[in-house]
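re: ur question from earlier - yeah i can do the single chain one, its not a big deal. heres the input i used so u can compare w yours
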Amino acid sequence: MTEKKAYPLRISADVLKATQQWSDDELRSLNAQIEYVLRDALRKAGRLPKQKEEKEKKA
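and the output i got, formated as tokens:
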């Protein structure tokens, strides 16, 4: 499992509210939803480290 790091996030109230609703709809915590959205965007942009992608393909 990868190491988790804490990071303070400043976010507008509207974006936070919409993200909280989305996470509730998908039965995720708000933190897990934010990480999911970021990871998906990084994957689509081809910006995830190659190591990570190769490990996921093998699993």
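The chain has a mean pLDDT of 88. not sure if urs matches, ping me
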